[in-house]
């Protein structure tokens, strides 16, 4: 199966779902007059749309039916049904029945609309929802604790419909679905006559007047069908299956949104000069406050207690991926220490339901019968170990002994946004003198110093290039708005977008980036998306940018998701990769849904040291990292045979 199927499991789900879809067609055949509708039914009568499956079949058939055409010998119901149920889900695309095309279209919609949704889970949701598209979407929203209501006319949903159109070989599916939306309530589930077909055909071909109340009516009906299903939609009752694979990505998206909200709250000059370092090294989202406040407090505390020995002002943070992943590891470890019997799967479910609030998780788990302990030092000890905190003992003293004494004052100072004077007051408040100020001298070896210097030079070279491109994109945007913007900071770059520049070159055509900029009209700092060529001076591709909502994660980009880099993309579709999920749905793309999920998961679960750790190494404080770098440099100098002997001492 296309899109990274799951072999025999997908085959079993396909059989079960097709049986359900066949039942929908049997009910539709009881309504449609086959002398008028056989051909449009078999060609375009998909069960995909914004109504229940049977109504969708009828509506899609009528949309393409010609009431003037009538077969001299009407086919029997069994003859038409035999053509619908002939396929078992394994037919090649050109030979698929309308039921099979419905199945593939439904599946393509879900894995295109939702991040981190393997085909196996998409099929399970289709089975639970009885192949009802909007009910399946509501079910996934419910399990993922999505707080925002589904908007039928959203860019994300339209894009997913396009993917469904490709997979179901029905190019007019998007247009038909929206055209039928305001008229679905007029399609009755009773035997239709030729006159009914003529009336309905004229109705569905009238010029469309888009009304928001049509969206609401469709969602109200879907919610009613959702609650009428004979199933328990509680996320706690859903078998873990492969759902656990999706939960980590969902949580990291939510954690990323917190870090994006933190960036404009900190004074920009302080962030660029100092706090970028402490944010990436120790700005974790666990602690006694909400996640955003924890990030800010942990960032300022680390910078206060362990100030940089050398100034290092930046215009760019390449990625927040590492601190976000370590934060999640810390949260999960905290819950394991506080709720001994909890699994990773259930811990992540509770974090989703509580919006990353550990104290709420413990309260919820207690109410549901778990044996729990209060937020104490064992939880924080587990969190600092799991998150590779650079100063674990010092942080434990701070969070357990110092912070409780000043907690209320800290909360009062954290106003939005923070001023430099507020940061200084916080810094004074969070400092404490009981820490051992002795700094043992651990020296970088000559080879390790070379690694450190190379990392820093690579970063500075990339920063210079990206800044030039982003500023050019911002200037192009200014010409369309009339406002001038000042670049604040770049906070995420993926330079691995598009095709390879040449067969022997591993580099890609484009980069995607997010950055914050301040307009001269006095409004608040704005988050932007930018795309630019990876060639220094490209005549064929002018850099461009669009403002984006920092909390939006619905717009999909296969290149950024493949690398686990969380770039917020705009609704405009002029950027590279905007339509690639439609190509993935039709198997025209080299990437598959499963490959994207697997690669992103691999990047999100990497442990140990990263290039960013080397970049922010401080020879005054990072003793363990210096030792690791010295060891890594020593290993690098070993020849292949010696390295293998050290890995496997039994090797001759």
Automatic annotation (TrEMBL):
Record domain PIR2-like helical: where: 21-140, 253-363
UniProt xrefs under Pfam families: DUF3615, PIR2-like_helical
Record-annotated DUF3615 domain positions: 470-570
Protein name from the UniProt record: Uncharacterized protein
Origin species: Oryza brachyantha (malo sina)
Gene name as annotated: LOC102707021
């Amino acid at each position: 199966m296309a899109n990274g199927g799951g072999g025999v499991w997908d085959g079993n789900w396909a059989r079960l779902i097709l049986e359900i879809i066949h039942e929908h067609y049997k009910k539709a055949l009881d309504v449609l007059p086959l002398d008028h509708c056989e051909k449009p039914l078999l060609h375009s009568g998909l069960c995909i749309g914004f109504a229940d499956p049977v109504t969708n079949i009828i509506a899609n058939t009528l949309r393409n039916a010609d009431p003037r055409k009538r077969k001299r010998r009407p086919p029997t119901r069994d003859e038409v049904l035999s053509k619908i149920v002939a396929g078992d889900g394994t037919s090649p695309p050109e030979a698929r029945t309308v039921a099979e095309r419905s199945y593939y279209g439904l599946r393509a919609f879900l894995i295109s609309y939702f991040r981190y949704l393997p085909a196996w889970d998409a099929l399970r949701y289709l089975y639970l929802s009885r192949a009802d598209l909007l009910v399946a979407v509501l079910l996934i929203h419910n399990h993922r604790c999505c707080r925002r209501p589904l908007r039928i006319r959203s860019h994300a949903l339209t894009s997913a419909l396009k993917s469904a159109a490709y997979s179901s070989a029905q190019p007019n599916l998007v247009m038909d679905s929206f055209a039928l939306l305001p008229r679905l309530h007029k399609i009755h589930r009773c035997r239709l006559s030729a006159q009914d077909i003529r009336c309905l055909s004229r109705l569905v071909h009238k010029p469309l007047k888009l009304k928001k109340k049509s969206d609401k009516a469709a969602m109200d009906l879907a919610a009613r069908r959702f609650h009428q299903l004979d199933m328990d939609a509680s996320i706690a009752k859903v078998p873990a299956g492969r759902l656990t694979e999706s939960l980590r990505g969902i949580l990291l998206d939510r954690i990323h949104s917190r870090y994006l909200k933190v960036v404009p709250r900190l004074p920009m000059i302080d962030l660029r000069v100092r706090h970028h370092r402490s944010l990436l090294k120790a700005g974790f989202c666990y602690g006694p406050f909400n996640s955003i406040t924890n990030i800010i407090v942990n960032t300022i505390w680390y910078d206060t207690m362990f100030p940089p020995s050398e100034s290092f002002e930046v215009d760019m943070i390449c990625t927040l991926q590492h601190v976000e992943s370590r934060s999640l590891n810390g949260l999960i470890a905290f819950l394991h220490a506080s709720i001994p019997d909890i699994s990773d799967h259930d811990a992540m479910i509770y974090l989703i339901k509580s919006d990353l609030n550990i104290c709420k998780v413990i309260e919820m788990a207690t109410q549901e019968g778990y044996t729990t302990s209060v937020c104490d030092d064992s939880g924080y000890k587990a969190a600092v170990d799991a998150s590779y905190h650079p100063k674990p003992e010092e942080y434990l003293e701070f969070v357990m002994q110092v912070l409780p004494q000043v907690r209320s004052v800290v909360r009062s100072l954290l106003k939005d946004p923070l001023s430099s004077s507020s940061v200084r007051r916080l810094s004074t408040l969070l400092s404490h003198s009981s820490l051992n100020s002795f700094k043992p001298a651990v020296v970088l070896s000559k080879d390790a110093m070379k690694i450190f210097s190379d990392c820093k030079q690579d970063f500075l070279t990339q920063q210079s290039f990206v800044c030039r491109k982003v500023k050019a994109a911002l200037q192009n945007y200014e010409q369309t708005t009339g406002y001038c913007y000042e670049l604040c900071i770049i906070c995420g770059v993926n330079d691995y977008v598009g095709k390879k520049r040449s067969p022997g070159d591993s580099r890609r055509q484009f980069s995607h980036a997010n950055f914050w900029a301040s307009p001269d009209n006095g409004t608040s700092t704005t988050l932007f998306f930018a795309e630019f060529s990876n060639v220094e001076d490209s005549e064929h591709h002018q850099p461009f940018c669009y403002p984006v909502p920092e909390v939006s994660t619905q717009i999909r980009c296969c290149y950024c998701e493949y690398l686990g880099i969380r770039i917020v993309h705009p609704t405009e579709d002029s950027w590279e990769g905007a339509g690639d999920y439609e190509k993935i749905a039709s198997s025209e793309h080299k990437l598959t849904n499963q490959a994207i999920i697997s690669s992103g998961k691999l990047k999100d679960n990497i442990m140990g040291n990263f290039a960013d750790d080397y970049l922010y190494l401080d020879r005054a404080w990072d003793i363990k990292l210096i030792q690791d770098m010295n060891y890594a440099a020593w290993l690098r100098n070993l020849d292949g045979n010696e390295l293998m002997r050290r890995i496997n001492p039994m090797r001759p």
